[in-house]
Every structure is written in C-alpha cells, then in structure tokens.
C-alpha cells in the first residue's frame, strides 16, 4: 500500500474523521489501530475529531463518520442521528453496524425476559432479592437490536467482524485522495 | 473554567451527575451524592448498556460459544475465547488438552496480555501520565505523545503490534480469531511464523524493560501523587500457579486481605460460586461481586495487574521478578495509579513467557485436539477461569444432552472491580470537590481514576479513552441547579438547563 500523498485532501486540509462505538465490542476500533505504525502516517492527513481514541471533541461538521456497533438503546439512536447531522460521509463499520451483529441474537427473545434471567429469578450466584436495574439514569433498551440503516441513510458499508486493518486503511486512503472507496474484493470478509 | 460560575451552596443534600462517557457516547455515568455540607457521601459509577449474553447464549450449540463470546470485547477477545474453551473442555470431560494445544493457547493468551497492556499504557493512559492531567486536551492522545515523545509512542505501537501478531499466528486473525476449540486448537503457527516472531524477541524484551523503567520513574518523580491518588485499601483476588507463582492462563484462586494476609488459597475454580456472590443495584447494569464469607459491605476486592503482582508469591521469569521485588519492597501496594506500573511489570513477564513458548518444540508438533469422550451425561457443567489483562475472568456453562447450552454465567474482569472503581472515584471526589463548583480539575481526575482500572470498561460497557463529561447539580427536590458540559478539547460550556 502506497501511503497517501502529502497533499491531504481535495479540500486542501486534513480530513476530519469522527468515530464512535454504539452497541459493538470495540473490535472495529482495534482494527483501526491495527494499521500499526501507519497511524503516524495517517496523522498528517487525517484529524481525528470526536473519537473514543482521543480527547478531541468538536461539535462542528466532519467529513467522515465511522460508526461501529448497532442500536440497542434509545441513546444509541440519539448518537446516530447526531452523527448523521454532522458527517458528510457516514460509514457503517463492521457486522453490528450493518446487520446488528452478534448482539442481535437477543432479537428472538423478549428483553424483559432476558433481564429477568440475568438480574433476578433467583439466579445462582446472585444475592437474594436481586432485581432488574431500573434507575432513570439508565437509558431505555430497545425491544430489538437494529442496524444503522434502518434509522438513517448510510453512505458506505465496511463489512467484516471486524473489517481488517487493510480494508480500513484502503478506505481512508481513497477518501483522503478524494475517491469513492472501492474495496478490493479479496479483502472483503464477513467473519 | 472561565465560563463556570460557582453554584449557590445549598443546605439540602445534593446529587451531582457526572457522565464520563457523555450522553453522546453514552455508556456510563458517575453520580456523587453530597451531604448538607456539600461533602461527598457516595459515588456511583453507572453502566448503562445491557446486552444479555448470559441469556441469549442459552440454546446455542456449545461449539459456537468460544467464537460467539469473544464478541463481548474486541480489546481482549482472546481472553473470552480461551475462558470459554477451557470451560467447555471441562464440560465435555476433557481434563487436559494435548501439549501442543496447551502451548498454542498459552502463547495466544500471553500475546493478548501483551497487546492489551501496551494499548492501555501507551495509547490510552500515557497521554495523562507523560503530558500531565492538566495538559492541552487536543494533544492528550497517542499522536500527541508521538509529537512530544516519538520514541515512546513508536515503541508502544510496535509492542502492541507484536502482541497482535502473536495472536494472529495462533488464532488466525488479530481480532476475533477462531483458533481455540473445545478440546484443543484448530491451528498452530508455521515454522516461518514462529521464526519471524523469535527474531524480534530481544528488541521486544528491551522495550518492555524500558516501559517498566518509565512507569517506575513516573512514580519516583511524584511519589505523593502516585501513592495517594484515588487511594483505597482493598484485598486482592487472582489465579496463581504452583507455589503461588504468577499465572495468567490456569490455576486455582487466591484471595488476600488488605494487609496481605491469605484469606483463601488453592480454591479450585469450579468452586467459585462458594467463594463469590454478586449483588445487583438498581442504578447500574454491572453487578457487584463480593466474598460470601465477608458479605456485601466488607467482602469487595480488586483484580487485575495490581492485584496479581501483590497477590503472587513470585513471578516465574527473572526480569519481571526483579521488577516485582522492587515494586513490593515496602509491602503490598494500594495506590490506584500503581496499576500502571504493575501492568508494565506484567507486560515484561508476558514477553518473557512468549520468548520461552516460542522455543518450545511442542508449538510445531501435534496432535491439536483431544478425543471427545464417548459418554454424554445429561448434566455437563464446566467452569473456565483465566486472568484476562484486566483481571480474573470467569465463564461457566452447562451443556445438555442435545449439545446445546442450558445455562451460562459470566463474571468479567471489570465487574470484579466495580466496587473499587466506585470507591476510587469517591476518594478523588472527596479530595478535589470543594462542595461548591464543579472544576475542570475534578472532571479530569475522575476520568483518570476510572482509567487506571480499565480505560475501556470494555467487557462491561464500551467506553474507551476520554469522553466529554456532562455534570449536573441536582437539588434534593430533583431540580437541576446547574449543568456543565466539558468538551474533549477542554472547553467548558454552561448549559441553561435550570428548570
């Protein structure tokens, strides 16, 4: 892979990229870090905006939003809508963002039954009298885990659980160059 | 803090809500309960996401489980992958896997410890530790460290890369590999892969040793801060090996009290439910484990690097053992920030173990799996415990005669530290909260206290690194008196949320 040319983006400034993990496991963020020392190359071309990997947060618009994870509670939906409003290019990264992923295995079951099973019901190992957490501080869980595109328009999808570091690198490289990313079919995986 | 005005002191008890993973990122919050004098009475860390793995995994075929449960956490997936494999070995009646499988699994695990510890220290915590808690927020990330300390940042990134490569050649992928199966493994490194890693060993050992020195130097330079920040006194729990040696892959449980006295030793992991019980609080989805014998109030303890270094009798690798002796020279260490130093000692140990395992000829041998016992009893329980990077990880399954999972119980590392994180945040709040205004210094330090345990809280939630903080002062009647949002770049925004 040839590193991006020093002239950063068609806009003539570093690309502003925001990232977030909703109902995911952070594996996609780990894959982003798996570009290893190319992180330092990226630094000249991409400015990480709001992201769990930095302390930087700007409420202004971003060029690219990378979203890991699906939607499992009301707060996830709020965050997704905020990202859609702020990002020119919104990308669903990984299996959970694209189709709900593993957390969506709960969709066949009633969420109340699940919570009873985990927090109450005289479960072995739990203190007697344990009950489902219900403080108003806790955001309301959704009845089902949803993929992102059911709620907002998604511009691009990066499949994989997680997408490999190469796929993420190629994607960022293309966007920095001002191209529509076209993933190499050989790199596309769904596991 | 120029935009923050002091809040009118109230004589009524107040509640301060702190959202370290802000509503925008949204996985956790902290609430402080204040007494009438404005002193901190209680601190609560709320985990706000529910996933329900223990329930929806019921009914799945057992062989899917090691691959499913690693999706609990993309930062330490190997720990879940292996804890589940070990539990299912037991459930299937396979009491030892072939030596090659054991060596491949151990190598995978110590690779995991190495990459996770490097990530935690260099990518996430070193900005605080090297640049300062009050440094320019836009620089407080790994790239900011790269600008100020290029060698340190590069070494951190390459140490993590090495650990990730160990994981890739043993599990098939850097994140969410499939190498371990009930009864053994389904792949092993090639000779070429083994040799390529071996060639890097001297460099990695050297960098690990420098990382320990860096952590030790930070402590030596500010002993007051490192000794007392978020300090609490707790007991410790971890697995140990023969003779009480540090052991991260397999062994019985050991528990010490805050004075260092052994409370329990040699406890077989399948008896964990006799040792531990969990409480549920209405305000968080994360449970509170405690020692049954001591009860909910007194029975809490800490796990993870600091617990393991305090708890073991020795570290069975020479360089890390020399560092341990220096670390515990004055007895068990209680300072919360000492987690970082202990973490680097463990990273050195993990690298020494990796060097040894790479030399083990069994790594390239066989067979890879044990035969499945012919009998298939109706009741097949299995418990697998491993020392994940962040602490003791317990997986417990029961398989039915239809080979489907009938019951599952998981106690993840971060959950063991639930009470301790609450207590450390409370200690920080008591020290830095003046009872009147929410200062930026307080907000930063709350995050630092949580980050010492686990900056990502990944298995219990998914907060990674520093998030914006939202703070509200709410009076006893539930009225919001004041609301402040601190952006990640340090700007403080006062929200007009008074009702």
How does this model look, in words?
The complex is a heterodimer of chains A (191) and B (499). Chain A has 191 residues and is of the alpha/beta class. Chain A has a single domain (15-105, 141-183), classed as 3-Layer(aba) Sandwich (Rossmann fold), CATH 3.40.50.700. Chain A has helices at residues 27-33, 38-42, 74-86, 94-99, 111-119, 165-176, and strands at residues 15-21, 46-48, 62-68, 71-73, 87-93, 141-146, 156-158. A 5-stranded parallel sheet of chain A has the order 2-1-3-5-7, sandwiched between helices. The two termini of chain A are 23 Å apart. In chain A, 51% of the residues are buried. The model of chain A is unreliable at 1-8 (pLDDT under 50). Chain B has a domain at 14-51 and 418-494. In chain B, 41% of the residues lie in helices and 18% in strands. Chain B has 16 helices and 17 strands. Chain B has helices at 53-56, 65-69, 77-91, 99-131, 142-148, 150-171, 191-221, 223-228, 272-275, 295-298, 305-311, 318-327, 338-359, 413-416, 418-432, 440-453, and strands at residues 14-19, 28-34, 40-47, 180-181, 184-185, 235-239, 253-256, 262-267, 276-279, 288-291, 301-302, 380-388, 391-399, 405-411, 469-474, 480-486, 492-494. In chain B, the strands form 5 sheets. Chain B has a 6-stranded antiparallel sheet with strand order 3-2-1-15-16-17. A 4-stranded mixed sheet of chain B has the order 8-7-6-11, covered by helices on one side. A 3-stranded antiparallel sheet of chain B has the order 12-13-14. In chain B, a hairpin with a 2-residue loop joins strand 4 and strand 5 (184-185). Chain B starts with 13 loop residues before the first strand and ends in a 5-residue tail after the last strand. The chains are: A alpha/beta (191), B alpha+beta (499). At the A-B interface, helix 1, helix 3 and helix 5 of A face helix 1, helix 4, helix 5, helix 6 and strand 9 of B.
């Amino acid at each position: 892979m040839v590193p991006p040319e020093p002239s950063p983006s068609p806009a003539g400034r570093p690309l502003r990229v925001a990232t977030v993990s909703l109902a995911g496991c952070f594996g996609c963020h780990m894959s982003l870090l798996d570009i290893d020392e190319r992180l330092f190359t990226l630094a000249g071309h991409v400015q990480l905006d709001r992201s769990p990997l930095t302390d930087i947060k700007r409420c202004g618009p971003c060029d690219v939003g990378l979203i890991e994870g699906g939607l499992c509670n009301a707060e996830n939906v709020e965050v997704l809508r905020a990202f859609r409003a702020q990002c020119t290019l919104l990308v669903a990264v990984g299996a959970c963002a694209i189709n709900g992923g593993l957390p969506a295995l709960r969709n066949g079951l009633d969420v109340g039954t699940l919570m009873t099973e985990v927090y109450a019901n005289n479960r072995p190992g739990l203190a007697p009298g344990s009950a489902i957490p219900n403080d108003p501080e806790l955001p309301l869980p959704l009845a089902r885990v949803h993929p992102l595109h059911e709620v907002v328009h998604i511009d691009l999808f990066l499949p994989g659980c997680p997408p490999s570091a190469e796929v993420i690198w190629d994607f960022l490289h293309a966007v920095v160059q001002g191209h529509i990313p076209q993933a190499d079919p050989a790199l596309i995986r769904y596991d | 803090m120029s935009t923050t005005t002091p809040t009118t002191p109230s004589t009524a008890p107040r509640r301060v809500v702190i959202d370290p993973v802000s509503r925008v990122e949204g996985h956790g919050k902290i609430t402080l309960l204040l007494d009438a004098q404005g002193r901190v009475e209680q601190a609560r860390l709320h985990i706000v996401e529910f996933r329900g793995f223990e329930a929806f995994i019921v009914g799945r075929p057992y062989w899917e489980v090691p691959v499913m449960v690693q999706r609990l956490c993309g930062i330490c997936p190997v720990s879940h992958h292996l804890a589940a494999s070990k539990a299912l070995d037991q459930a299937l009646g396979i009491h030892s896997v072939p030596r090659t499988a054991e060596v491949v699994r151990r190598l995978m695990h110590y690779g995991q410890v190495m990459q996770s510890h490097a990530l935690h220290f260099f990518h996430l915590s070193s900005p605080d530790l090297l640049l300062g808690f009050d440094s320019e927020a836009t620089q407080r990330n790994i790239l900011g460290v790269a600008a100020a300390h290029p060698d340190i940042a590069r070494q951190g990134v390459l140490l993590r890369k090495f650990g990730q490569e160990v994981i890739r050649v043993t599990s098939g992928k850097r994140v969410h590999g499939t190498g371990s199966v009930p009864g053994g493994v389904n792949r092993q490194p090639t000779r070429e892969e083994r040799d390529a890693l071996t060639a890097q060993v001297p460099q990695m050992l050297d960098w690990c040793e420098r990382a320990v020195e860096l952590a030790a130097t930070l402590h030596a330079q500010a002993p007051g801060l490192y000794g007392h920040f978020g300090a609490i006194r707790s007991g410790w729990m971890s697995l140990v090996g023969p003779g009480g040696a540090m052991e991260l892959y397999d062994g019985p449980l050991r528990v010490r009290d805050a004075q260092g006295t052994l409370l329990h030793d040699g406890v077989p992991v399948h008896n964990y439910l006799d040792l531990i019980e969990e409480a549920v609080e209405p305000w968080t989805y994360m449970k509170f484990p405690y020692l049954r014998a001591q009860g909910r109030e007194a029975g809490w303890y800490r796990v993870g690097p600091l617990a393991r270094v305090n708890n073991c009798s020795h570290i069975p690798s020479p360089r890390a053992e020399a560092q341990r002796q220096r670390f515990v020279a004055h007895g068990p260490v209680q300072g919360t920030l000492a987690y970082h130093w202990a973490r680097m000692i463990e990273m050195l140990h993990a690298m020494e173990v990796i060097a040894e395992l790479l030399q083990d000829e069994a790594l390239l041998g066989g067979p890879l799996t044990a035969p499945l016992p012919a009998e298939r009893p109706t009741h097949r329980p299995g418990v697998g415990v491993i020392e994940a990077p962040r602490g003791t990880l317990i997986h417990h399954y029961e398989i039915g005669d239809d080979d489907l999972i009938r019951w599952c119980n998981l106690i993840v590392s971060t959950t063991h530290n639930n009470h301790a994180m609450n207590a450390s945040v409370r200690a920080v709040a008591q020290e830095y909260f003046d009872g009147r205004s929410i200062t930026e210094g307080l907000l930063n330090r709350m995050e630092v206290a949580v980050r010492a345990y686990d900056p990502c809280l990944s298995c219990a939630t998914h907060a990674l690194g520093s998030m914006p903080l939202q703070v509200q002062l709410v009076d006893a009647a539930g009225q919001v008196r004041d609301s402040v949002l601190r952006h990640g770049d340090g700007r403080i925004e006062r929200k007009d949320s008074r009702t």
